[in-house]
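job 3f2a | input accepted
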Amino acid sequence: MFCEKAIELIRELHRMSDGQLPAFNEDGLRQVLQEMEALYDQNQSDVNEAKAEGRSDLISSIKLRHCCLLRNQRCVTAYLYDRLLRIRALRWEYGSVLPANVRFHMCAEEVQWFSQYKKSLASFMRSLGGGEGLDITQDMKPPKSLYIEVRCLKDHGEFEIDDGTVILLKKNSQHFLPRWKCEQLIRQGILEHVMS
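job 3f2a | predicted structure (196 res):
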């Protein structure tokens, strides 16, 4: 049946919850593009036959295949656009370095797009704040306090805060640190916020 593979691509994205990125379905995308090529070729031959022989009975099948082509095009565009939106959201959630399990689900073009987006965002943030730059990815939610208590989930090594103090982040150690310095490490899974 027409358009089934394209609709399956959309269903695949719909099954995943927000914030998750399914593996790039290159095989499904290739099948949809092959179907589109076959529909286009069949339409071309029918249009040529309808013009040459004046067959108006082919017009309805030409229109049907054309509608299927447009539907496949919309589904492929929606699939790719939704993936880009999810990848963009991952930049805000994880920061400029994506975990390996997330990168594994991306195709080469998506990795390249992520890299360009990351560079554009960094350039924009450097242009803010009067020459010092402003990290707009910090404090995604308004903070209740400027300092938070965190627990280290894995060995990370030395961590320097603004006043020059160097803290050794070892597994299961707890620290009272500025929120804005910890948010990135919390998102990366190195620290966890201890709620008391």
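job 3f2a | The beta strands are 147-152, 157-160, 166-169, 174-178, 191-193.
job 3f2a | closed
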